[in-house]
Amino acid sequence: MYSTRTFGARVTDKRDLHRALVGHCESAMGKLRRQKSLTKAITVFASNSPHDDTAYYRKSIYHPFPVPTMDTRIVTNALPAIIDKIFKPGVCFYRCGVGIVEIIPAANYQADLFSINEDNPKLMNVLDAVNGRYGKSTLQVASKGFDKKHEMKRLFLTKRATTRWSDVPQIKC
Questions:
Q1: Per-residue pLDDT for 99 more than 80?
Q2: Are 94 and 152 in contact (CB under 8 A)?
Q3: Mean pLDDT over residues 60-71, rounded?
Q4: For labelling alongside 19, which of 33, 96, 137, 168 has CA 20 to 30 A away?
Q5: Among 40-49, 51-60, 73-82, 104-113, which is the least confidently predicted range?
Q6: How far apart are CA 43 and CA 97, in angstroms?
Q7: pLDDT in tens, 154-171
């Protein structure tokens, strides 16, 4: 299960890349909780465009967790170390994403007696409930930031006449 997007403007700053990846973590972990699952590992990647004048750069890191998790905080806390391995100065990143891999059903998971599970399911349920009721990213991880510099540009979206009543063309006779 992946969450990935191209940037609206090229990202050259480590902090902006981190913020974009935190947003992808939030999205992917929300999907994971909706299907009542846990993840044993994530894959994080970032790349520039193969059509750039500079050499193509794509880096992907696999990060396992000691205990399967469904907690967004645990996954986002792993990102700084991963970004240090992915980020390369001088590269204009065009795309990034987070993949949730090694997914297991939460109902069938048997915890290890000696491993400490730091998940907080009640907090994650509140986070999902508030975001479900009041809109995506009403509550979010603070390290995601509040500026939207890295998000896709949506100025030229086509009309959604088949999915939204307000976009259906009206004919006046």
A1: yes
A2: no
A3: 94
A4: 33
A5: 104-113
A6: 8
A7: 555 666 667 778 877 788
Please state, as a whole number, how many other Cβ atoms lie within 10 Å of the Cβ of residue 24: 23
69: how many CB neighbours lie within 10 A of its CB? 22
Antiparallel, parallel or unpaired: β 2-11 and 58-69 = unpaired
Residue 48: predicted pLDDT: 92
Residue 70: which of 113, 121, 24, 112 has the closest Cα? 121
Q: What is the DSSP string of 56-85?
A: P-EEEEEEEEEEEE--HHHHHHHHHHHHHH
Instruction: Tell me which long-range contacts 146-154 makes (C-beta under 8 A, separation of at least 24).
Output: 147/19, 149/8, 149/9, 149/16, 150/7, 150/8, 150/9, 150/11, 150/16, 150/17, 150/19, 150/20, 151/5, 151/7, 151/8, 152/5, 152/6, 152/7, 152/8, 153/8, 153/9
Please state whether beta strands 93-105 and 2-11 pair in parallel, antiparallel, or not at all (unpaired). antiparallel
pTM: 0.77
Looking at the chain, list the stretches that DSSP marks H as alpha helix, in order from N- to C-terminal side: 14-34, 72-86, 121-134
Please give the Cα distance from 105 to 63 (Å, whole number). Answer: 19
